[in-house]
Protein backbone atom coordinates (compact mmCIF):
# COMPACT_ATOMS: atom_id res chain seq x y z
CA UNK A 1 0.00 0.00 0.00
CA UNK A 2 2.82 2.33 0.91
CA UNK A 3 4.49 1.59 -2.46
CA UNK A 4 1.33 2.52 -4.37
CA UNK A 5 0.99 5.67 -2.31
CA UNK A 6 4.60 6.59 -3.02
CA UNK A 7 4.08 6.01 -6.76
CA UNK A 8 0.94 8.13 -6.67
CA UNK A 9 2.76 11.00 -4.93
CA UNK A 10 5.61 10.70 -7.43
CA UNK A 11 3.21 10.81 -10.38
CA UNK A 12 1.39 13.85 -9.01
CA UNK A 13 4.70 15.59 -8.36
CA UNK A 14 5.91 14.91 -11.90
CA UNK A 15 2.65 16.20 -13.35
CA UNK A 16 2.87 19.36 -11.25
CA UNK A 17 6.47 19.93 -12.33
CA UNK A 18 5.52 19.43 -15.97
CA UNK A 19 2.62 21.85 -15.61
CA UNK A 20 4.86 24.49 -14.05
CA UNK A 21 7.95 24.15 -16.25
CA UNK A 22 6.42 22.70 -19.45
CA UNK A 23 2.81 23.96 -19.51
CA UNK A 24 2.36 23.29 -23.22
CA UNK A 25 3.92 19.83 -23.43
CA UNK A 26 0.60 18.08 -24.15
CA UNK A 27 -0.23 20.60 -26.88
CA UNK A 28 3.28 20.14 -28.29
CA UNK A 29 2.99 16.36 -28.45
CA UNK A 30 -0.43 16.43 -30.10
CA UNK A 31 0.70 19.03 -32.65
CA UNK A 32 3.87 17.11 -33.49
CA UNK A 33 1.87 13.92 -34.00
CA UNK A 34 -0.40 15.76 -36.44
CA UNK A 35 2.68 17.11 -38.17
CA UNK A 36 4.15 13.62 -38.53
CA UNK A 37 0.93 12.36 -40.13
CA UNK A 38 0.92 15.30 -42.55
CA UNK A 39 4.58 14.71 -43.42
CA UNK A 40 3.83 11.05 -44.14
CA UNK A 41 0.96 12.03 -46.43
CA UNK A 42 3.15 14.56 -48.22
CA UNK A 43 5.78 11.88 -48.76
CA UNK A 44 3.14 9.58 -50.25
CA UNK A 45 1.86 12.35 -52.52
CA UNK A 46 5.38 13.10 -53.78
CA UNK A 47 6.14 9.46 -54.53
CA UNK A 48 2.96 8.87 -56.53
CA UNK A 49 3.14 9.23 -60.29
CA UNK A 50 1.60 11.49 -61.39
CA UNK A 51 1.63 13.45 -58.15
CA UNK A 52 -1.53 13.36 -56.07
CA UNK A 53 -3.05 16.83 -56.46
CA UNK A 54 -5.84 18.75 -54.76
CA UNK A 55 -7.99 17.88 -57.79
CA UNK A 56 -7.47 14.18 -57.05
CA UNK A 57 -8.49 14.87 -53.47
CA UNK A 58 -11.65 16.60 -54.70
CA UNK A 59 -12.52 13.68 -57.02
CA UNK A 60 -12.00 11.24 -54.15
CA UNK A 61 -14.39 13.34 -52.05
CA UNK A 62 -16.94 13.17 -54.88
CA UNK A 63 -16.73 9.37 -54.76
CA UNK A 64 -16.80 9.23 -50.95
CA UNK A 65 -19.76 11.55 -50.32
CA UNK A 66 -21.29 12.74 -53.62
CA UNK A 67 -24.44 14.16 -52.00
CA UNK A 68 -22.67 16.11 -49.27
CA UNK A 69 -22.91 19.89 -49.60
CA UNK A 70 -19.71 21.36 -51.00
CA UNK A 71 -20.56 25.02 -51.66
CA UNK A 72 -23.40 27.09 -50.22
CA UNK A 73 -23.84 30.46 -51.90
CA UNK A 74 -26.63 32.99 -51.40
CA UNK A 75 -29.15 30.36 -50.35
CA UNK A 76 -28.24 27.86 -53.08
CA UNK A 77 -26.27 24.73 -52.23
CA UNK A 78 -24.16 22.55 -54.51
CA UNK A 79 -23.13 19.01 -53.64
CA UNK A 80 -19.72 17.55 -54.36
CA UNK A 81 -21.29 15.60 -57.22
CA UNK A 82 -22.89 18.73 -58.70
CA UNK A 83 -19.61 20.61 -58.44
CA UNK A 84 -17.88 17.80 -60.33
CA UNK A 85 -20.52 17.88 -63.08
CA UNK A 86 -20.50 21.68 -63.38
CA UNK A 87 -16.70 21.83 -63.54
CA UNK A 88 -16.64 19.10 -66.21
CA UNK A 89 -19.24 21.04 -68.20
CA UNK A 90 -17.10 24.16 -67.91
CA UNK A 91 -14.06 22.20 -69.11
CA UNK A 92 -15.96 21.03 -72.20
CA UNK A 93 -17.09 24.59 -72.97
CA UNK A 94 -13.53 25.89 -72.69
CA UNK A 95 -12.29 23.19 -75.05
CA UNK A 96 -15.00 24.04 -77.58
CA UNK A 97 -14.65 27.83 -77.50
CA UNK A 98 -10.96 28.40 -76.83
CA UNK A 99 -7.67 27.00 -78.06
CA UNK A 100 -6.50 25.87 -74.65
CA UNK A 101 -3.91 23.15 -74.42
CA UNK A 102 -2.50 21.27 -71.48
CA UNK A 103 0.13 23.37 -69.74
CA UNK A 104 -1.35 26.73 -70.76
CA UNK A 105 -1.82 29.49 -68.20
CA UNK A 106 -5.29 30.98 -67.88
CA UNK A 107 -6.06 34.16 -65.94
CA UNK A 108 -9.15 34.10 -63.74
CA UNK A 109 -10.59 37.57 -63.19
CA UNK A 110 -13.61 36.74 -61.05
CA UNK A 111 -15.09 37.65 -57.69
CA UNK A 112 -16.23 35.26 -54.97
CA UNK A 113 -18.89 33.12 -56.66
CA UNK A 114 -19.42 29.44 -57.47
CA UNK A 115 -18.26 30.01 -61.07
CA UNK A 116 -14.81 30.77 -59.69
CA UNK A 117 -14.68 27.30 -58.14
CA UNK A 118 -16.10 25.48 -61.17
CA UNK A 119 -13.75 27.23 -63.63
CA UNK A 120 -10.71 26.61 -61.44
CA UNK A 121 -11.60 22.92 -61.16
CA UNK A 122 -12.21 22.83 -64.93
CA UNK A 123 -8.75 24.24 -65.59
CA UNK A 124 -7.25 21.64 -63.26
CA UNK A 125 -9.04 18.92 -65.22
CA UNK A 126 -7.65 20.34 -68.48
CA UNK A 127 -4.13 20.41 -67.07
CA UNK A 128 -3.93 24.20 -67.22
CA UNK A 129 -2.37 26.59 -64.73
CA UNK A 130 -4.72 29.15 -63.17
CA UNK A 131 -3.48 32.68 -62.52
CA UNK A 132 -5.80 34.19 -59.91
CA UNK A 133 -6.12 37.92 -60.48
CA UNK A 134 -7.24 40.43 -57.89
CA UNK A 135 -10.73 41.40 -59.03
CA UNK A 136 -10.18 44.93 -57.72
CA UNK A 137 -7.24 45.78 -59.97
CA UNK A 138 -7.73 47.99 -63.00
CA UNK A 139 -5.88 49.49 -65.97
CA UNK A 140 -2.09 49.40 -65.56
CA UNK A 141 -2.18 46.89 -62.70
CA UNK A 142 -4.43 44.54 -64.65
CA UNK A 143 -2.16 44.65 -67.70
CA UNK A 144 0.88 44.13 -65.48
CA UNK A 145 -0.63 40.90 -64.16
CA UNK A 146 -0.87 39.47 -67.68
CA UNK A 147 2.78 40.24 -68.26
CA UNK A 148 3.71 38.46 -65.04
CA UNK A 149 1.63 35.30 -65.49
CA UNK A 150 2.07 34.85 -69.24
CA UNK A 151 -1.60 34.08 -69.81
CA UNK A 152 -3.13 34.24 -73.28
CA UNK A 153 -6.67 33.55 -72.11
CA UNK A 154 -8.71 35.66 -69.69
CA UNK A 155 -11.88 34.37 -68.06
CA UNK A 156 -14.01 37.04 -66.44
CA UNK A 157 -17.57 37.77 -65.37
CA UNK A 158 -20.21 40.19 -66.60
CA UNK A 159 -19.80 42.30 -63.45
CA UNK A 160 -16.17 42.98 -64.42
CA UNK A 161 -16.85 43.67 -68.12
CA UNK A 162 -16.18 47.40 -67.80
CA UNK A 163 -12.77 46.78 -66.24
CA UNK A 164 -11.82 44.42 -69.08
CA UNK A 165 -13.11 46.74 -71.81
CA UNK A 166 -10.88 49.47 -70.43
CA UNK A 167 -7.78 47.45 -71.32
CA UNK A 168 -9.24 45.47 -74.22
CA UNK A 169 -7.32 47.33 -77.00
CA UNK A 170 -4.00 46.46 -75.37
CA UNK A 171 -5.10 42.87 -74.71
CA UNK A 172 -5.98 42.44 -78.38
CA UNK A 173 -2.54 43.68 -79.37
CA UNK A 174 -1.10 41.01 -77.08
CA UNK A 175 -3.43 38.42 -78.67
CA UNK A 176 -5.06 37.71 -75.34
CA UNK A 177 -8.28 35.70 -75.63
CA UNK A 178 -11.08 37.13 -73.48
CA UNK A 179 -13.73 34.60 -72.46
CA UNK A 180 -16.64 36.17 -70.57
CA UNK A 181 -19.07 34.15 -68.46
CA UNK A 182 -22.81 34.74 -68.39
CA UNK A 183 -22.73 36.61 -65.36
CA UNK A 184 0.01 52.99 -57.89
CA UNK A 185 1.80 49.89 -56.72
CA UNK A 186 1.78 47.02 -59.13
CA UNK A 187 0.62 43.60 -57.89
CA UNK A 188 3.24 40.96 -57.24
CA UNK A 189 2.79 37.49 -58.66
CA UNK A 190 3.59 34.35 -56.67
CA UNK A 191 4.13 30.91 -58.21
CA UNK A 192 2.49 28.18 -56.12
CA UNK A 193 3.37 24.57 -56.90
CA UNK A 194 1.46 21.49 -55.79
CA UNK A 195 3.57 21.07 -52.66
CA UNK A 196 2.84 24.64 -51.55
CA UNK A 197 -0.86 24.11 -52.19
CA UNK A 198 -0.83 21.03 -49.99
CA UNK A 199 1.15 22.65 -47.18
CA UNK A 200 -1.31 25.54 -46.98
CA UNK A 201 -4.30 23.22 -47.35
CA UNK A 202 -3.17 21.13 -44.38
CA UNK A 203 -3.48 24.13 -42.08
CA UNK A 204 -7.13 23.31 -41.41
CA UNK A 205 -6.18 19.78 -40.38
CA UNK A 206 -3.37 21.06 -38.15
CA UNK A 207 -5.74 23.61 -36.59
CA UNK A 208 -8.29 20.98 -35.63
CA UNK A 209 -10.91 21.32 -38.36
CA UNK A 210 -13.08 18.18 -38.44
CA UNK A 211 -14.72 16.45 -41.38
CA UNK A 212 -18.18 17.48 -40.12
CA UNK A 213 -17.37 21.19 -39.90
CA UNK A 214 -18.80 24.01 -42.01
CA UNK A 215 -16.39 26.83 -42.89
CA UNK A 216 -17.37 30.40 -43.72
CA UNK A 217 -15.23 31.78 -46.58
CA UNK A 218 -15.70 35.48 -47.25
CA UNK A 219 -12.05 36.35 -47.91
CA UNK A 220 -11.31 36.83 -51.63
CA UNK A 221 -10.57 33.61 -53.48
CA UNK A 222 -7.83 35.31 -55.51
CA UNK A 223 -5.86 35.57 -52.26
CA UNK A 224 -3.97 32.68 -50.67
CA UNK A 225 -5.89 33.09 -47.40
CA UNK A 226 -9.30 32.55 -49.01
CA UNK A 227 -8.16 30.13 -51.71
CA UNK A 228 -5.58 27.92 -49.98
CA UNK A 229 -6.39 28.21 -46.28
CA UNK A 230 -10.10 28.34 -47.07
CA UNK A 231 -11.21 26.57 -50.25
CA UNK A 232 -8.50 23.97 -50.89
CA UNK A 233 -8.19 23.36 -47.15
CA UNK A 234 -11.92 22.57 -47.11
CA UNK A 235 -11.44 20.14 -50.01
CA UNK A 236 -8.66 18.38 -48.10
CA UNK A 237 -11.01 17.99 -45.14
CA UNK A 238 -14.03 17.16 -47.32
CA UNK A 239 -16.22 19.76 -45.64
CA UNK A 240 -18.85 22.32 -46.64
CA UNK A 241 -17.91 25.86 -47.70
CA UNK A 242 -20.31 28.73 -47.11
CA UNK A 243 -19.11 31.20 -49.74
CA UNK A 244 -19.71 34.94 -49.41
CA UNK A 245 -19.08 37.62 -52.06
CA UNK A 246 -17.39 39.86 -49.51
CA UNK A 247 -17.15 40.46 -45.79
CA UNK A 248 -20.08 42.11 -44.05
CA UNK A 249 -19.83 42.82 -40.32
CA UNK A 250 -23.59 43.35 -40.02
CA UNK A 251 -24.44 40.03 -41.73
CA UNK A 252 -21.59 37.95 -40.34
CA UNK A 253 -23.24 36.29 -37.33
CA UNK A 254 -26.62 35.99 -39.03
CA UNK A 255 -24.93 34.01 -41.81
CA UNK A 256 -23.15 31.85 -39.25
CA UNK A 257 -26.45 31.01 -37.57
CA UNK A 258 -28.35 30.53 -40.83
CA UNK A 259 -25.85 28.09 -42.33
CA UNK A 260 -24.71 26.43 -39.08
CA UNK A 261 -21.13 27.62 -39.53
CA UNK A 262 -18.62 26.05 -37.14
CA UNK A 263 -15.30 27.42 -38.47
CA UNK A 264 -14.48 30.98 -39.49
CA UNK A 265 -11.44 32.64 -41.03
CA UNK A 266 -10.09 36.05 -40.25
CA UNK A 267 -7.30 38.31 -41.44
CA UNK A 268 -6.09 41.72 -40.35
CA UNK A 269 -8.72 43.77 -38.57
CA UNK A 270 -11.77 41.60 -39.34
CA UNK A 271 -12.21 40.62 -35.69
CA UNK A 272 -12.04 44.26 -34.59
CA UNK A 273 -14.79 45.12 -37.07
CA UNK A 274 -16.96 42.42 -35.49
CA UNK A 275 -16.23 43.72 -32.01
CA UNK A 276 -17.21 47.23 -33.12
CA UNK A 277 -20.72 46.18 -34.17
CA UNK A 278 -23.59 47.04 -31.78
CA UNK A 279 -23.98 44.49 -29.00
CA UNK A 280 -27.04 42.21 -29.08
CA UNK A 281 -28.54 39.53 -26.87
CA UNK A 282 -27.68 36.92 -29.51
CA UNK A 283 -23.93 37.62 -29.61
CA UNK A 284 -23.19 34.20 -28.14
CA UNK A 285 -25.94 32.36 -30.01
CA UNK A 286 -23.97 30.53 -32.69
CA UNK A 287 -22.15 27.26 -33.33
CA UNK A 288 -18.75 28.70 -34.25
CA UNK A 289 -16.12 26.79 -32.30
CA UNK A 290 -12.91 27.61 -34.19
CA UNK A 291 -11.40 30.69 -35.83
CA UNK A 292 -8.17 30.55 -37.81
CA UNK A 293 -6.19 33.32 -39.43
CA UNK A 294 -3.55 35.93 -38.71
CA UNK A 295 -3.08 39.54 -37.69
CA UNK A 296 -5.23 39.48 -34.52
CA UNK A 297 -4.21 41.99 -31.87
CA UNK A 298 -4.12 40.78 -28.26
CA UNK A 299 -6.67 43.34 -27.01
CA UNK A 300 -9.12 42.51 -29.80
CA UNK A 301 -8.55 38.79 -29.17
CA UNK A 302 -9.55 39.12 -25.50
CA UNK A 303 -12.53 41.34 -26.33
CA UNK A 304 -13.75 38.92 -29.00
CA UNK A 305 -13.69 35.95 -26.59
CA UNK A 306 -15.40 37.90 -23.83
CA UNK A 307 -18.20 39.04 -26.12
CA UNK A 308 -18.77 36.12 -28.50
CA UNK A 309 -18.02 33.19 -26.22
CA UNK A 310 -15.75 30.19 -26.14
CA UNK A 311 -14.33 30.21 -29.66
CA UNK A 312 -10.93 28.56 -30.04
CA UNK A 313 -8.71 30.99 -31.90
CA UNK A 314 -5.83 29.54 -33.90
CA UNK A 315 -3.49 32.37 -34.87
CA UNK A 316 -1.00 31.53 -37.62
CA UNK A 317 2.10 33.06 -39.11
CA UNK A 318 3.37 32.52 -42.63
CA UNK A 319 3.72 33.93 -46.12
CA UNK A 320 2.83 32.61 -49.55
CA UNK A 321 6.48 32.45 -50.56
CA UNK A 322 7.96 32.16 -47.07
CA UNK A 323 9.97 29.23 -45.76
CA UNK A 324 8.69 29.25 -42.16
CA UNK A 325 5.21 28.71 -40.77
CA UNK A 326 3.97 28.92 -37.19
CA UNK A 327 0.67 27.99 -35.55
CA UNK A 328 -0.55 29.15 -32.15
CA UNK A 329 -2.15 25.81 -31.33
CA UNK A 330 -2.16 26.50 -27.56
CA UNK A 331 -4.54 29.44 -27.81
CA UNK A 332 -2.23 31.84 -25.95
CA UNK A 333 -3.62 35.32 -26.43
CA UNK A 334 -1.33 37.56 -28.46
CA UNK A 335 1.07 34.88 -29.73
CA UNK A 336 1.48 34.37 -33.50
CA UNK A 337 2.64 30.78 -33.02
CA UNK A 338 4.79 28.48 -30.95
CA UNK A 339 8.29 27.30 -31.79
CA UNK A 340 8.45 23.92 -30.06
CA UNK A 341 11.60 21.81 -29.94
CA UNK A 342 10.74 19.89 -33.11
CA UNK A 343 10.12 23.09 -35.12
CA UNK A 344 13.37 24.58 -33.88
CA UNK A 345 15.23 21.59 -35.30
CA UNK A 346 13.30 21.11 -38.56
CA UNK A 347 12.91 24.80 -39.46
CA UNK A 348 16.07 26.17 -37.90
CA UNK A 349 14.23 28.45 -35.49
CA UNK A 350 15.96 29.99 -32.49
Features:
long-chain fatty acid-CoA ligase activity; 14 helices; alpha/beta; globular; transmembrane; 2 domains; 8-stranded mixed β-sheet; Rossmann fold; 4-stranded parallel β-sheet; long-chain fatty acid transmembrane transporter activity; 350 residues
Topology:
Layout: H1 2-21, H2 25-47, H3 54-64, E1 69-73, E2 76-79, H4 80-97, E3 105-109, H5 114-126, E4 129-132, H6 139-149, E5 153-156, H7 161-173, E6 177-180, H8 194-201, H9 203-207, E7 214-217, H10 224-237, E8 240-243, H11 252-258, E9 263-267, H12 270-275, E10 290-294, H13 298-308, E11 312-317, E12 326-327, H14 341-346
Parallel strand pairs: 1-8, 3-4, 3-5, 5-6, 7-8, 7-9, 9-10, 10-11
Antiparallel strand pairs: 1-2, 11-12
Helix pairs in contact: 4-5, 6-7, 8-10
Helix content estimate: 40-55%
Cα distance, first to last residue? 47 Å
CATH architecture descriptor of the largest domain: 3-Layer(aba) Sandwich
Strand % is 5-15%
- Characterize the main sheet: 8 strands, mixed
CATH superfamily of the largest domain: ANL, N-terminal domain
* Count of folded domains: 2
Low-confidence stretches: none
Morphology call = globular
Element order, helices and strands?
A: HHHEEHEHEHEHEHHEHEHEHEHEEH
Mean pLDDT: 87
Number of helices: 14
The helix-and-strand class reads alpha/beta
Strand elements, count: 12
CATH top level of the largest domain is Alpha Beta
Amino acid sequence: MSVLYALFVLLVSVLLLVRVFCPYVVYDVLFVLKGVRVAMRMRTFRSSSPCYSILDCFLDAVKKHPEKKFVVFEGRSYTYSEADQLSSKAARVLLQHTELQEGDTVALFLGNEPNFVWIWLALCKLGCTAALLNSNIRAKSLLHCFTCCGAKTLITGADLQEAVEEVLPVLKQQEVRVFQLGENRLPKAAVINHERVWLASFLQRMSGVRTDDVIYVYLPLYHSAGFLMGLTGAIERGITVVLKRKFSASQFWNDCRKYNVTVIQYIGEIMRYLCNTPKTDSDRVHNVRLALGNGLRADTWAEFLQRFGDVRICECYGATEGNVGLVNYMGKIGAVGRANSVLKVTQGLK
